[in-house]
Amino acid sequence: MTHPNAASRPTQAVVLAGGQGSRLRPYTDDRPKPMVEIPGTGTPIIGHQLAWLAEEGVTDVVVSCGHLAEVLQKWLDSADLPLSVRTVVETEPLGRGGGLKYAAAHLPHPDRPWYATNGDIWTRFSLRDMADFHTERDAVATLALARPRIPWGAVRTDGFGHITDFIEAPPSTFEINAGVYVFSPEFAGMLPERGDHERTTFPRLARERKLAGFTIPQGSYWRAIDTAKDLTEAAKELAGLGR
Questions:
Q1: In this protein, which residues make up the domain named Nucleotidyl transferase (predicted)?
Q2: Which percentage of the chain shows pLDDT scores above 70?
Q3: How far is 217 from 173, CA to CA, in rounded Å?
Q4: For residue range 91-118, what is the model confidence (pLDDT) as tens digits?
Q5: Torsion from C-alpha of 159, 162, 167, 172, nearest 10 degrees
Q6: Which domains does the chain have, with CATH numbers?
Q7: What is the rounded distance in angstroms from the CA atom of residue 55 to the CA atom of residue 104?
Q8: Residue 111 phi/psi, 5° resolution?
């Protein structure tokens, strides 16, 4: 039996792959951040993302390139990809919101919903569930939310200032924007031509109660690859997952 929301689940996505990745040097000296390989997999971050999107029913992806775009385009041309990929290059910096708007203009179905993901996110969870959540809340935009682990050891104290416990890398008490989104068709028209939508469009939608937050289910894998340490951690976790 087909799920009642199946028709409203996106089959198109934008991957934002234009970042400099300066904190990942020297890995990013000769390639953009999404082209950095997850150690032990033989595949760059974007390769894992495209495989995940395809598994979740996506057939068309627009990859927005910037820094060292030709390296990414060359890899995409030579790779055996599970979906159709088109690349667009920002000729001038448009900011996060402007870049998203520019990429969205190249989606094959402007009248249908779409996913977007930052090019440095390594994750696995059900995008179909997230799309259904988006539809059920009648949202214009839905953000995936993650509860990252704090990279430091934490301490617990009692009311008298005595330390009672040490907790190694505890989960944050706050949820953060996990860099994966579901957008309704009208969202693209609300984006700024240039500038940051997280300072303009998102707050406006939040005031209108049209912005939803989908918490990534507990036990699902999520990591932003920002530093060399993230790469080693990802490889370790991967070995542990047996994937």
A1: 13-238
A2: 90
A3: 15
A4: 787 888 998 999 999 999 999 999 999 9
A5: 40
A6: 12-146+174-242 (3.90.550.10)
A7: 21
A8: -95, 10
* Beta-carbon contacts of residue 131 (< 8 Å; ≥ 6 apart): 5, 8, 9, 10, 113, 115, 182
pTM equals: 0.88
Residue type, 219: G
Is the Cβ–Cβ distance between 178 and 172 less than 8 Å? no
The set of long-range contacts for 193-202, using a CB threshold of 8 Å and a minimum separation of 24, is: 193/94, 193/98, 193/101, 194/94, 194/95, 194/97, 194/98, 195/95, 195/96, 195/97, 195/98, 196/95, 196/96, 196/97, 197/96, 197/97, 197/100, 198/96, 198/97, 200/97, 201/97, 201/141, 202/141, 202/143
CB 228, CB 157: distance < 8 Å: no
Name the token pair of 25.
């040097």
- Tokens representing 183? 């957008």
Q: What is the DSSP letter of 119?
A: T
Report phi then psi at 109, rounded to 5.
-125, 85
pLDDT for 28? 64
